[in-house]
Amino acid sequence: LKEENALLRSKINKLQILSETQADKMRKLEKKLEENKIKEEKEAQDLEAMVQHVEQNLQLMTKRAAKAENSAAKLRQENAQLQAELRNSRLEKEALQAGQAGLAVAKQNAEVALQHLLQVTTSSRASIRQLLSGAESLQLVADLLKSIDRITEVADDGQ
């Protein structure tokens, strides 16, 4: 009985030691579980904060994209207006160049007409001088004929 008692006590001691060891293990596991829960909660909070940050960035990028699209549309419209202005300016330039060419032709024609007028004027003056000279010559011939006529009359009268 003593042996059995000692054996049972030995088993009880072993079981108590085993029980204490398992209780220690249990406390350590509970502590580790608590630490893991805290760690998971922190990771979940960090993940939630990251998700919120990503959502904010996404909203900001969406706003920027919308703003960029509006800017691009305005720039396309402005570009179209500038293209139209450029076409109009080119047409104006061509019209002005054509007008200047026409003006140059008109100026050249006026210059040619002026040269002809100067030639006609010079020629007319020469013709007028010749006419005056011819008229003077005719006047002289007429005077001469009158003189001859008088001389013949006087000679006829004197005979």
TrEMBL record:
Record keywords, A-Z: Coiled coil
Signal peptide: none
Coiled coil: 12-99
Any single Gene Ontology cellular-component annotation: recycling endosome
InterPro entries for the chain: ENTR1
GO BP term (any one): regulation of cytokinesis
Family designation: Belongs to the ENTR1 family.
Protein name per UniProt: Endosome-associated-trafficking regulator 1
Naturally occurring in which organism (per UniProt): Ficedula albicollis (Collared flycatcher)
